[in-house]
Design brief:
Helices cover about 20% and strands about 30% of the residues. The chain is an alpha+beta fold.
């Protein structure tokens, strides 16, 4: 019975790994004034921990200060996480607020960036990226994702609400430029306090050229029709996201008190979003995987507390929540997009066994892909047991003498897992 259970676990693990290759994980993150200074550089190892845990394929950010900072983040957090990641062309602001910028980084094994543009607003840019999904039928039946990333005006007050609404009105006009069947992601730090804000209602208005929705449909109760100003005169948290009934989707603040940068106050606001076009909820070439929307690090039990509180146990580990606490005052948002067709990411000719996959001491392999930087070996439980840097080598001998007898798997970013049997 134990053998059957172990076999079933292995099958499930590698089934998940395989089908994960047909999934695109999107992640948005406010990276808190990330600059080319020592303070930001010292935070960077925490971002690497977050990326290694979350494993995104599309990494969208805001609050990036400049191109030097982007390059440092890319070199020291993103590439060490996954060598197949590339960065979009860096765009300086065309809007008045020039010091907080957006950027995307992406897994080039799954996505191809076709074009990028900047949409100016009266506050901050909206950055638009068009990605083509690398599917086997990509030439005859291309699948594209239109990705918009922004950072709306912060703070309460009617003037700030109007500025948020003006920015997202610009976004909805852009939807009219796209084919009506386009797949759309709209991500950012939106700074909405309630779904009753005119700006949020503008985004989800069903009359938009492409209907945009909240994947988890966690909207606030509508304001009563009683002529009261619930934003100011008669504030009632019932109609806003900053109450305990929304504790599981709060994304700000990770801290009860501020560190050297960022805000405190504990987790009590839903500011960060990835919204999607409604057609992604249909069974199309590309579709939103139900229940995959996550506020990373939020175990649903840290209302008005800090994310690394040791009492806030749950799905997300203490190690991850410690890294999130140190890196930013916001939490990342993720969701999975399932690809109906097969992603063309496997390169089965890149690595082959020179002798046999049945090994006593040393495994000999040949590498034909010069772009491959490293390979990894996992045990039958899915635990990483060895990582090997390749450095343009064509033939490699891997010492397995310390390994216990059993089944292992060798893989890399663009490779289908290969079984190894240690005897």
């Amino acid at each position: 019975m134990l053998i059957k259970k172990a076999s079933l676990f292995v099958l499930c693990f590698w089934s998940v790994s395989f089908f994960g290759q047909n999934t695109i994980k999107a992640m948005f993150y406010n990276i808190l004034n990330y600059n080319s200074d020592t303070e930001s550089q010292n935070r960077t190892p925490h971002l690497k921990t977050i990326l290694e845990t979350v494993q995104p394929d599309l990494f969208m950010v805001c609050e990036l200060k400049n191109e030097t900072a982007s390059d440092y983040l890319y070199t020291n957090a993103i590439l060490p996480f996954k060598q197949s990641f590339e960065k979009a062309p860096f765009k300086y602001s065309e809007s008045p607020a020039t010091n907080l910028l957006q950027m995307v980084y992406y897994n080039s094994a799954k996505l191809e960036l076709e074009q990028t543009s900047v949409i100016p607003t009266q506050i901050r840019d909206i950055n638009h990226y068009t990605f083509k999904v690398k599917v086997e039928s990509g030439n005859s039946n291309p699948v594209r994702i239109e990705v918009f990333v922004t950072h709306l005006k912060a703070s309460r007050g009617q003037d700030n609400r109007e500025k948020r609404n003006a920015s997202v009105t610009t976004f909805t006009r852009e939807l009219d430029r796209l084919p009506t069947d386009s797949y759309v992601l709209f991500a950012g730090d939106f700074n909405f306090y309630t779904s009753n804000e005119s700006g949020f209602q503008t985004i989800i208005n069903s009359s938009n050229p492409i209907k945009i929705i909240d994947p988890v449909n966690r909207l606030c109760p509508a304001f009563p029709d009683d002529n009261k100003d619930y934003f100011n005169d008669d504030y009632d948290s019932t109609y806003f996201w900053n109450n305990s009934s929304f504790a599981d989707v709060h994304s700000q603040s990770t801290r009860s008190s501020s560190l050297s940068d960022g805000s405190g106050g504990g987790m009590d606001d839903r500011f960060d979003f990835i919204l999607i076009s409604e057609n992604l909820t249909k069974n199309n070439n590309l579709y939103y995987k139900p229940e995959s929307y996550k506020t990373i690090g939020n175990n649903g039990n840290c209302y008005n507390s800090f994310v690394s509180n040791t009492t806030c146990l749950g799905e997300f580990s203490q190690n991850l929540r410690n890294a999130l606490y140190q890196f930013s005052d916001h939490l990342p948002i993720t969701l999975d997009l399932q690809v109906a067709n097969t992603l063309s990411i496997y390169n089965t000719a890149s690595i082959k066994f020179l002798n046999s996959n049945i090994v006593k001491d040393y495994l000999s392999i040949q590498v034909s892909d010069i772009n491959l930087k490293s390979i990894t070996i996992y045990n039958h439980l899915g635990q990483k047991v060895k990582s090997i840097e390749i450095n343009n080598q064509k033939e490699i001998s891997i010492n397995l003498t310390s390994f216990s007898k059993g089944v292992y798997y060798l893989t890399a970013d663009s490779l289908q897992p290969k079984k190894i049997i240690k005897i």
